[in-house]
Design goal:
Blueprint lengths: L16 H11 L1 H16 L6 H26 L7 H17 L2 E2 L5 E2 L3 H24 L5 H20 L20 H4 L1 E2 L2 E2 H19 L1 H11 L1 H6 L4 H27 L10 H11 L11 H20 L4 H34 L1
Antiparallel strand pairs: 1-2, 3-4
Length: 354
């Protein structure tokens, strides 16, 4: 028996060309936003396209991108990390303390460290704070929002206690201990590109490889997409959650190191509100707040959008208050667009099955 033929003039089941075009634009929204923002400030902001300004923007983007990469893994796994800004501040203070004083052994001696050792110690500090977040969430069943909010306050308080709220100045280092190269982390260049940008590139490439080419990456997406289903399929959910928060802490430690090196000073208020920029970059880059979806490449583009937007508004003389409002609107808009994309994709799937 032959299958029924649709009446003449009727449309076959499946997504319309308009729907497919809209869905494609929604998927490419971050690139579209980047082009529009860049083009706008190229015309509206004086000296925006100068080499010096591009260098400054690249440094700012590198810092936000590093935080956002760690945040992407956390959000994809179904969590959130509000503590990264405070981890930045605390790790910057740890770096400043090690450069200036080392570790006093209380016996008339002190341990002094070279630049590499300082970087390793600070990275370990960031990873340990991330581990604490992970333990609170996995072992004590504290909601990620509450756990990382508490860590935000604890880490910021610890940063203030490090110096009674004062700044550690003049982090030039000591050539006798090999710490005089500390300043190169934030101010050095290679092939004309700041080292901070190279650090971001290396971390981004490793994170992208981890997300797309390794079992750990697949498990992160599985946990965020369906935690119970991932557990039933043999994924160690607790271990994955511990990993993503430790990786986020590691990224925050790198940012703390870079900022302390760039400024050659450490201040306990370093990193305030950085977590908002990281979340904005990740969400704008297509990371779903409900978990299970997100790409490192999209996050990097999102970080560029946030960085260009922030620096462009400053160059145009826009009030810092309005800058905060605009960033908030960007986050809201990104979440709304993401919801629209999910509903449209679900509709396309249903049409394809009809």
């Amino acid at each position: 028996m032959s299958s029924p033929v649709p009446p003449h003039g009727s449309k076959a089941a499946g997504p319309s060309s308009q729907t497919s075009t809209l869905l494609l634009l929604l998927k490419m929204r971050t690139f579209v936003a980047l082009i529009l923002v860049f083009a706008f400030f190229a015309f509206a902001a004086p000296n925006f396209l100068t080499g010096a300004n591009m260098l400054i923007i690249s440094k700012h983007v590198a810092l936000n991108a590093l935080l956002a990469i760690g945040m992407t893994f956390v959000i994809v796994s179904g969590g959130i990390d509000l503590s990264v800004g405070s981890i930045v501040g605390l790790c910057a203070m740890v770096a400043g303390w090690l450069v200036l004083y080392g570790i006093d052994l209380r016996i008339g001696w002190s341990l002094q460290f070279n630049t590499l050792e300082i970087c390793v110690i600070v990275a370990i500090a960031g990873i340990l704070i991330g581990l604490i977040n992970g333990i609170l969430i996995t072992k004590l069943n504290v909601a990620p929002f509450i756990a990382t909010l508490g860590t935000l306050y604890v880490a910021r308080g610890a940063a203030l206690l490090f110096s009674d709220g004062r700044t550690f100045p003049n982090l030039a280092g000591n050539p006798d201990y090999g710490s005089d190269t500390f300043k190169l982390i934030g101010s050095g260049t290679w092939l004309g590109v700041p080292l901070s940008v190279w650090i971001m590139v290396v971390v981004a490439v490793l994170a992208a490889y981890l997300a797309t080419r390794t079992p750990v990456g697949r498990h992160i997406y599985a946990v965020g997409g369906n935690e119970r289903g991932a557990a039933l399929s043999g994924v160690n959910v607790d271990r994955i959650k511990l990993f993503v928060y430790m990786f986020s802490g590691f990224c925050a430690a790198l940012v703390g190191l870079i900022i302390a090196s760039q400024l050659q000073a450490s201040h306990p208020a370093t990193g305030e509100t950085f977590e908002l920029n990281a979340i904005a970059a990740a969400v704008l880059g297509g990371t779903s707040m409900s978990g299970g979806r997100g790409r490192i490449g999209g996050t990097i583009v999102g970080a560029f959008v946030i960085g260009i937007l922030a620096d462009g508004l400053i160059m145009m003389g826009v009030s810092s208050f309005w800058q905060t409002v605009i960033k908030g609107l960007v986050i809201i808009a990104a979440v709304v667009v993401d919801q629209v994309q999910q509903k449209l994709q679900a509709r396309v799937v249903l049409q394809g099955q009809a």
